[in-house]
Amino acid sequence: MSTETPQYYPPPESHGGWRWLQGQEDIRAVAGMDPDRLELMACNQELIYGGDSWGIVIIRNGYLVREFYSFNVLVPSRFDIWSGTKSFTGTAWGLLLDDSLQDRLPGNAKVDLDSPAYDFIVEGKPLSDPRKARITFRQLLTMTSGIAGEASGVRGMPTATEHGAFEHALGRCPNRYGSWTDRLASDPGTRWEYSDPAMAHLALAFAHIMGQEMSEFLKSRVFDPIGIEKLSWDVQGGSGFIGPHTNAHTGVHVSARELARFGYLMLQGGVWEGQQLIPKWWLDLSTQSSQELNRQYGYTWWVNTEGCRWLDIPHDLFFLAGYRSNLCYVVPSLDLVVARVGSGPTAWNQRKLLANVISAIVA
Q: DSSP string spanning 32-86?
């Protein structure tokens, strides 16, 4: 975070939103960026990905420097950011864990990263695999729980009409493709595997511990205080099955500007208008490598600790990322947030957008 400019926090979009720069000289002088390079980047995005719907917002030094949208997308247009939702789930859990440290949990419950997760998931008993008793919240948040995921052929959590999503996550039924999570793919803590069913456990445990859904909790603790007004968050389950509960692995629908607002909160060390909304200890922990099995993953954030992902990108980079190229990059050393939301493409050079924006920084 820059120490050369005063603290700035944008009002909600309904009250004026981000301050923004107009004209090439302001972009150069205030944001320290080359407007011609930014325009070239935008033209390339339009040329290569013009068939998709998307929006890109660039924030530097507390200013909305530039934003670019495909022809059919408006400033308030919202998109499902898919797995970018996991970083919202991780934020809710950081607050829960801090509330436990501060003796603020309902019923004076005590929960920490090494608490056995199934102690707080009543629907999971009896266990479908005895090894599940050893799964901790740390492992769920770092994708090291052993619960089957993408590497084991379990992609997402789509279920058939006669099955529930949480039942599938707990190993009670297959997904619509016949894949099961009843047996662990590995012993807890021994393998990194990206797993949506593992994330679903966090929604169940959160609801039991807090007596509140993650979406409602973050609305009062984070979204309202920082002025996010139009975000919505899907639920899953119900209709005779477990739930409905907040969808922990996907389902946040948000605009590019409001996603950038969430990233800006992280850039500010979790502080907004003098209030420490996100515990600093959690932000520091979650945006660094969380284990040695996959150093590119923190606690629901992707990270670049010691250049473990991209050597030529600042090593303090952390970001959320979801299917169809939804992402939010945060680079504290450059006072930079880059948010992209959209319907696609489904595959692209993820690093290139950020590298092009960084190349436009001239001061």
A: -B-HHHHHHHHHHHHHHHTTS-EEEEEEETTEEEEEEE-TT--TT--EE-GGGHH
The domain boundary, picked from 213, 231, 266, lies at 213
Q: Within a domain: residue 354?
A: yes
Q: Is residue 204 included in any domain, yes or no?
A: yes
Q: What's the predicted TM-score (pTM) here?
A: 0.97
The Cα–Cα gap between 310 and 314 comes to: 8
Q: Regarding beta strands 54-60 and 235-236, do their DSSP bridges make them parallel or antiparallel, or are they unpaired?
A: unpaired
Strand order in the sheet with 302-303: 63-69, 54-60, 336-342, 326-331, 318-322, 302-303
Question: pLDDT averaged over consecutive 10-residue blocks of the chain (363 residues)?
Answer: 68 97 94 96 89 96 96 96 98 98 97 98 97 98 98 91 96 95 98 98 98 98 98 97 98 98 98 98 98 98 97 97 96 98 89 94 87
Does residue 209 share a domain with residue 94?
A: yes
pLDDT of residue 6: 66
Number of domains into which the chain is organized = 2
Owning domain of residue 38: 13-81+248-359
Backbone angles phi, psi at 311, to 5 degrees: -65, -30
Number of H helices and number of E strands within the chain? Answer: 11, 13
Give the rounded distance of the alpha carbon of 161 from its chain centre: 29
Q: Report the CATH number at residue 275.
A: 3.40.710.10
